[in-house]
Write a structure and sequence with these properties.
Shape: globular
CATH class: Alpha Beta
Largest sheet: 7 strands, mixed
Mean pLDDT: 79
Number of strands: 9
Helix content: 40-55%
Bound molecules: S-adenosylmethionine
Structural class: alpha/beta
Oligomer: single chain
Radius of gyration: 20 Å
CATH topology: Rossmann fold
Amino acid sequence: MAGTRLPPEDTDVPQVRLPVTADLISDDDRSVAADSWSIKSDYGSTLDDDQRHADASEALAAAPYRTASDYSSDKEEPDAETITSMLGFQSYWDTAYADELTNFHEHGHAGEVWFGADVMEMVASWTKGLCVDISQKQMQNHHDNANDNSDLDKQGEKDLADWSVLDVGTGNGLLLQELAKQGFSELTGTDYSEGAIDLAQSLANRDGFASIKLLVDDILETKLDKKFRLVTDKGTLDAIGLHPDGPIKRIMYWESISRLVAPGGLVVITSCNNIKDELVQEVENFNQRKAPEESDISRNPPIFSYLDHIRSYPTFMFGGSVGSRVATVAFLRS
Ligand SMILES: C[S@@+](CC[C@H](N)C(=O)[O-])C[C@H]1O[C@@H](n2cnc3c(N)ncnc32)[C@H](O)[C@@H]1O
């Protein structure tokens, strides 16, 4: 991703969409958006936001972690760095979604499909596979004498209805639509930009997915107090990490996610700014920070454990190393 917005009709030609400086508003304006909260009453607020920030700052100070300057590169074009970090600001997204809403109303365009439609479809079908496997294993554990494999397959698919799903930073909500096509039915999408939620709602209504719940919510100061069996993120942690306070915000992100994923549930992160091993390391750092000192791992398993990642993305060779443009990694919540 990193500053690249693709026009809806031309996914092969990366283009940078440049918000002018005047488009940027201060983070104070975000509290205005937070005040105009549109979350339904079953998602109450129980947490103290200042406390969250203080906790994350403390953790960052204590932990060996990349500092903001580590994220700066020695690129020749300093402007490119500035442009990239705009994606870490809500004002950037508000402007982007205002444009996308206009495009939707005038031309019916769905807007950006981040990382492309193929990646989105792969993430949805791969995630479904993981959930079906988990449901089947749970069933096998419960009914040892059970059913042949085909019964288990059918039951596993049926059980997708039991997987409550939250897509954080859902944007236009198309990943949720894709998950609905795979058989998931309890779907919620959140985004801190009201424009994103308006767009996602308009598209869901138009495309026959009106049952998807869509809410304005900042994942770093989430007002959701419900737990979900599956939490997905495609490009949101990337965007959060691009804020000048990215490292601290990433810690706050994992704090929130750990509260939102139900025990035994999954979080599936799709990123183009971090490779799989970096995401796994970030989660291990989080686990270590949260582990009680000298804890017994059998009594206190890590909060998240790496489960799997998508291996079938196209790869490319650079400087003797093989990599892929996008990483999708699943972690299991203890
Ligand atoms: C790269 S876009 C990806 C959008 C969508 N997930 C997709 O794949 O099309 C990043 C999204 O994260 C949202 N976002 C960034 N920071 C957020 C935060 N703190 N809370 C909620 N949403 C956030 C942005 O508004 C934007 O919609």
